[in-house]
From TrEMBL:
Keywords: Chromophore, FAD, Flavoprotein, Lyase. Residues 2-131 form the Photolyase/cryptochrome alpha/beta domain. The record marks W313, W367, W390 as: Electron transfer via tryptophanyl radical. It comes from the Bacteria. Its EC number is 4.1.99.3. The lineage of its organism: Bacteria, Bacillati, Actinomycetota, Actinomycetes, Micrococcales. Belongs to the DNA photolyase family. FAD binds at Y226, T238, S239, E240, L241, S242, F279, D380, A381, D382. GO terms for biological process: nucleobase-containing compound metabolic process; response to stress. This is Deoxyribodipyrimidine photo-lyase. GO terms for molecular function: deoxyribodipyrimidine photo-lyase activity; DNA binding; FAD binding. The keyword Flavoprotein applies. InterPro entries: Crypto/Photolyase_FAD-like_sf, Crypto/Photolyase_N_sf, Cryptochr/Photolyase_FAD-bd, Cryptochrome/DNA_photolyase_1, DNA_photolyase_1_CS_C, DNA_photolyase_N, Rossmann-like_a/b/a_fold. It holds the Pfam family DNA_photolyase.
Amino acid sequence: MTCSLVWLRDDLRVADNPALVAAVERGEPVVVVFILDEVSPGIRPLGGATKWWLHHSLTALRDKLHRLGGELILRQGAAPDIIRTLIRETGATALYWNRRYGKPERDMDASIKDYAKASGLEAHSFQANLLFEPWTVRTGSGTPYTVFTPFWKSCINRPTPPRLPAPTPESITSPATLPDSDDLDNWNLLPTNPNWALAFPVRWTVGENGAHAALERFFASRIDRYAKGRDFPAEYSTSELSPHLRWGEISPFQIWHATDDFRRDHGNSAEFSTNAAKFLAELGWREFSYHLLYHWPDLATVNFDARFNHFPWGEPDPEILEAWQQGRTGIPMVDAGMRELWQTGYMHNRVRMIAASFLIKNLLIDWRVGEAWFWDTLVDADPASNAASWQWVAGSGADAAPYFRVFNPVLQADKFDPKREYLHRYLGEYEHPMLSGYPEPIVDLLESRNRALEAFKTLADDPRSIAPPTIDL
């Protein structure tokens, strides 16, 4: 018995899955595998919140595959070794996957493809998770883009739009004998002692069905106000698709064409076009982040702007850092955001910028400390967007203008939460701070701002002027 082997990674869906389609169309039985690899060199271990999401996403995917006649094989360990083992166990004659863009992942995929071809297997990778492959988007001089606006203009002005989503297979044929599979529960992806994700299911419906329900909800009740409403954290104005995109439960091609179809069906008014263009530009920021990660693989650990290698970040005081992590800084907008993060695994994007700016600039703590905390606590912790966005707020990233910007969390609350609805939602003690023991501010905002500006004077005076939109899909 021979078969086609489909290796899924961050593409946990059956619709618009080119690797799965190719395997089914080949005509042989199909074995679908997901490998939890946190041991291969350079592979970053998952954070706690993304592990929670992954558990439920794999459960949903397994059910989807069962309905089509397929099975999901789970293995844990070094992916190259497991793929070689599965090829021998299944008699696979073809290996298919959808591309990844981090350098350790690309190097791994290239070595496995070489092994497969040398072993006589048909081996193919597919474009499934980005609208525009990073190596295909270049400036007029042939270099990678480092500014968002021209990058996105170059993408959307191409003569042909992104491809249509691939069809969902009508059925999947499994081999008569399947290889052994791990028990998902034995991976211990879910928190237990304590179960800090207890409230996550209230906020999220994980899986491919949940992703499409979120997109439909966005079109039904949110997109008409998106361009303005996305800045107000008390409003439910964003699509909340980012964790679904993180694990590929929905593809950017599906989002792009669904938005285009919705725009066409609703008359393509100027107001709707503005909202739709803004929404797609947020998808563009994700594309830009992966463009950066592809060309600058150390985006999560190395300052994009080398001047910041000498920026005087201090050694973080454990008590101060813990106050920020737990939402006990005494700065309401920061604390509300950090508590939203802890309770839901998510934080509204504008509040992410405020909380990040406070850590980096008011507390003078290295952006990498904050990036690592978000990596562990966000359900949408994405290797490209998380790093690019933290560097952007820090001023060390691409297109980070002006790099010396310091968000004032009080003014931000006045402007974007004027009725204090968001603050009341996550700060139960906010209404009566003197009675509830709400903490005093851990720093003086004006004094710490001035200290940050003095620190920026150690850098060359080269402010960049065009700021990209920030992802809040």
